[in-house]
Amino acid sequence: MRNFLYIRSMKKSLILLTIMLVSCTGAQQGVNNSVADGRRYCNPLPMVIGPGGNASGDVSVFRDDDGRYYMFCTGGGAWHSDNMLDWEFTPVQRVPVAPDVVKYRGKYYMSGNDCPLYVADNPLGPYSVLGEWENTPDVEGGWTCSTQAAV
Questions:
Q1: Residue 50: inside a domain
Q2: Is residue 4 part of a domain?
């Protein structure tokens, strides 16, 4: 008899919990929780790069002192935005595969796979070669860096 009452009590609790969850879910259906009318971020990004219209991957984004966002992706060039939703493309030379750009002491430094370190006064370039990486392991040690700059 005791087990029967326990099971009956658990059943009521589960029914009550289910009703509460359904109520909460239904109440939120009228709320637009999406970003900018349903636009979402994913990798690769749905941004066209060059001939063939490939999507952009290996994304690196930073916010500059002026409040603008700068996004570099494999495939060359950079996108910039005031709100991270509406992006404008600008061609940038020497963007490597899997680029990363950082600002340090007023200069912008860019590097990526198989490339030297680049430097510029503006996040959109022009970037010049600052130098090759030194004292790095060889390929067997897990490192590969060519002397050929990505253009």
A1: yes
A2: no
